[in-house]
Amino acid sequence: DAVDDSVRALMDDMLDTMYDAPGIGLAAVQIGDLRRVVVMDLGDGPVPEGAAPPADGEEVRVPNPRFFANPEVLWQSDETYCYEEGCLSIPEYFDEVERPARVRVAYLDREGQRVEEEIEGLYAVCFQHELDHLNGVLFIDHLSRLRRDRAMSKVKKTMRLREDA
Ligand code: GNR
Ligand code: NI
Known about the structure:
The chain is α+β, with helices and mostly antiparallel strands and 165 residues long. It has three helices and seven strands. Nickel (II) ion binds next to helix 2.
């Protein structure tokens, strides 16, 4: 219900873990904390003042960390959007997931301010993916039985290979 220093410390720890992975989002449960906290960085933050212009062909990724406590979906569009998702908790498996294209969301930011906004695109995909984690749902739970079973076999194989290494 509130963002205190302990929640902010968790957010900072999660951000480190996410950048280290690397990933574009992380839910607290993925590092074993059951509080309803999410961090995300989809890039394209404000360009720092005095930054050098990018060289030709060079990719600029300006960090844009975002913090969410108690995220909720207030409304979702009937229109859907398909995106090839991956998850740090499901190594080396990617598949197309269909979700509402736009969602109206609410959360507390890093300062504990309540924010309400309508979002779309990758931001909406990631928000829904992370909120699912808080509710014990993984992206493979949105797939058909056949594809979920295929995902699980692949993940088990990856885990076996990692144990052998
Ligand atoms: O790093 C991640 N990439 C990603 C790509 C498509 C849809 C969702 C994600 S989130 C994922 C990190 C993760 O597992 N967060 O829970
Ligand atoms: Ni995930």
